[in-house]
Amino acid sequence: MPFFPGKAPFPEEGQPKAAMAWLPGSLVFWAMLTLIYLIAPGCSVEVKVPIEPLSKPAGEAAELTCSYYTSVGENFALKWSFVQPGNPISSAETILYFTNKELYLTGPQAKRATLLQNPPTGGVATLRLTDIRSSDTGTYLCQVNNPPDFYNNGLGLVNLTVLVPPTKPTCGQSGQISVGGGAALTCSSSGGAPRPVYTWVRLGSAPTPAPGSMVQDEVSGRLILTNLSLTSSGVYRCVAANQLGSAFCELTLAVTDPSKGRVAGTVIGVLLGLLFLVVGVFCLLKFQKQRIKKPREIYGGNDLREDAKAPGVYDSLPRRGNTDVGLLERSPSASTVTTTKSKLPMVV
Question: Following CA atoms 202, 207, 209, 210 in sequence, which dihedral angle do they give, to the nearest 10 degrees?
């Protein structure tokens, strides 16, 4: 008797035809297996979430779509949790959960979180957040648990990005800001989502810089200036922009010329030297003038006092005793010192 794969063999004469229903490959057999699979406990839980990430401006409301398929029973439970960017899924914080026909709100987002369908027993588990802010950016987990349906993890991930305009950036400069040198201009904004793009522009009607002497990085906000000249001086503006807006800061670059500084230093040094020379000459002349004038003040004039000595007479002669002085005072006719000395024996 030939055998055809996928088909039941023909029965021989005298064999019951009802046995054909239990032969492998028959339609009845596969229909029975399908029916058993559908009604048997332990079916899988299927959760569906959007593949594309969700982006919303700050201050608005965001709906995180989540739907599921399972046979909801007494043990049905739903949980929404949140994890910040860069952190593992295991560190997620619970926002709300539904169990035993009750909804519980937890975590810092509880006052702004609600379910689009409450109770979430009709296959819709969408989460709605109001007044979203930059701290709401991250990954949200929609998890459905319905024992004994454990043949799937029942988990869906939704990524949310809250759009925030850039804050006012801060400008700075570093390097050798002189002719022939180089400078690095920096620009950074502390806030903004998505991350802002930086653009440097030079204000005014200045000549166009040489190719390669002005290179900027739109991601880091850094502007490199090389081979500076005096024409490189001016006002530079940095603009930080993203999808929601822009902000800017300005910086004034002043390029110096070292050669002019050396000339100015030389001129100042010469002038200071001349000033010191003039002051020195003036002081010397004044000192000489005072030196010449001082003897005239001591010996000059014709006024004679009674107890004054004759000019040119100094106390170089030895003094005699008081008796001799008294004798000299009583000699009215003494005209000179020599005459007085010759008369001293006669008085005695």
Answer: 170
